[in-house]
Amino acid sequence: MTVVVRIESERIRDWETFHTVFAESFGFPAFYGRNMNAWIDCMTYLDDIGAGMTTVHCEPGRVVTLLLEHAAAFATRCPEQYAALVECAAFVNFRRLESGGTAVLALAFS
């Protein structure tokens, strides 16, 4: 089963709205720190239901696809947040691969 989470990027205008959209879309816990280190921590555990870091999950060895809607407009409107999203998604997978795991997050743009 493929898990796809649609991100309505037109709702993102700044860091505050970035973290609100992702917290809502992925069901981050109440203690989510609303910064990119906390974002990375939450996204690293997409295949670990017991971790309690998200309400979105995939089976171990599978990936969650983050579908960024209106990606070009988002990149133009919020270049810092767009670049951080791409870089931090790559870091989530790098972190997992470095510890002997598998990639867990894919990005798709529309």
CATH class: Alpha Beta
Rg is 13 Å
Mean pLDDT: 97
β content, as a range? Answer: 15-25%
- Counting helices, strands and paired strands, the structural category is alpha/beta
CATH architecture: 2-Layer Sandwich
The major β-sheet equals: 3 strands, parallel
Number of strands: 3
Q: Which residues sit in consecutive blocks of at least 5 with pLDDT less than 50?
A: none
Specify the number of helices. Answer: 4
Number of domains: 1
Note the overall shape.
globular
List keywords for this structure.
110 residues; alpha/beta; Barnase, Chain D; three-stranded parallel sheet; 4 helices; 3 strands; 44% helix; globular
